[in-house]
Design a protein that fits this description.
Elements lengths: L10 E3 L31 H9 L6 H12 L6 E5 L5 H8 L3 E6 L2 H10 L4 E4 L13 E6 L10 H14 E11 L2 H8 L3 E8 L2 E8 L4 E8 L2 E8 L3 H10 L3 E6 L13 E6 L1
Parallel strand pairs: 2-3, 2-5, 3-4, 5-6
Antiparallel strand pairs: 1-11, 6-12, 7-8, 8-9, 9-10, 11-12
Helix pairs in contact: 2-3
């Protein structure tokens, strides 16, 4: 099912008015968090092995053409995967004829992407720094698997959203896919506190604070031990953040096929530069 088949189901917002309540998502209110959410290489090969075991990348090959539809891009267009990790999704875009570029702050992740998924162009870059010309003018941008929300502060997350806007040509589209607070409430079925679970041999300890949106996950899989910290947002706050960054025609869905968002679904946020 494609986007055009679900036009009547779209959740479309044209947002104005008040901005995101930064105080709600303030890191300083979470007493046991360090001043930096994650080290640069937190999401390198060890995390990718854990994520693969958890099935996080299943369906990438099928989702790539659906994402192209949402972005309104075709073969030959330039699309960047911001926070590409090991490159599986950006490689799927390349296989569909996209002039695909993967960007990640981690040198380790980019080196692995070049080995595992050659084909796309890869760059190591900190998107919080001034962008070089080669990282501007894209027809589309994807930010997948909760690759957003890692700023030390809400202001840094807002700056990242502005960087996404700067990477696109006027009229280019962004598609973000991530867990919002609604999904986390549904899956964890708790208001606050620690949740322990095992999935496909991966031991997970999740410490969530819904009042601030902070989530700390401790993963253990064989010899791999990874700690991940992320700031989750309500969907409407992400929409406001996109508008304040200069995006327009903000829409949200529950999948890349353009289906309506249910509590159990990851949020797919689409916006036009």
């Amino acid at each position: 099912m494609r986007r055009g088949d679900l036009e009547d189901c779209r959740n479309r917002r044209r947002l104005t008015g008040t901005g995101v309540d930064r105080s709600r998502y303030a890191l300083k209110s979470v007493s046991d968090q360090p001043p930096i959410l994650n080290e640069v290489d937190t999401y390198g090969p060890a995390y990718m092995r854990v994520a693969n075991q958890l099935g996080r990348y299943e369906g990438n090959e099928e989702e790539a053409p659906l994402a192209m539809d949402l972005l309104g891009v075709k073969a030959g267009d330039r699309v960047v995967d911001a926070g590409c990790g090991l490159g599986r999704f950006v490689a799927a875009l390349a296989e569909n004829g996209i002039d695909a570029v993967g960007v990640d702050i981690s040198e380790i992740a980019i080196a692995a992407a070049k080995r595992e998924y050659p084909g796309p162009t890869y760059y190591v870059a900190d998107l919080m720094q001034p962008l070089p010309p080669k990282l501007k003018g894209f027809d589309g941008l994807v930010s997948l698997s909760s690759s957003f929300g890692f700023g030390e502060t809400v202001a840094e997350d807002e700056a990242m959203m502005r960087a996404y806007r700067e990477m696109l040509r006027p009229g280019g589209k962004m598609a973000m896919e991530l867990s919002d607070l609604e999904r986390s409430r549904y899956r964890l079925k708790t208001d606050e506190g620690v949740v322990e679970r095992e999935t496909n041999g991966v031991q997970e300890t999740l410490d969530v604070n819904f009042s601030t949106g902070m989530l700390h996950v401790h993963y253990v899989y064989g010899d791999d031990v990874v700690d991940s910290r992320i700031r989750m947002y309500e969907a409407e706050d992400l929409e406001r953040m996109a508008v304040e960054a200069g995006f327009r025609d903000v829409e949200h869905y529950g999948n890349f096929a353009g289906g309506p968002k249910r509590p159990e679904d990851r949020l797919v946020l689409v916006a036009t530069a």
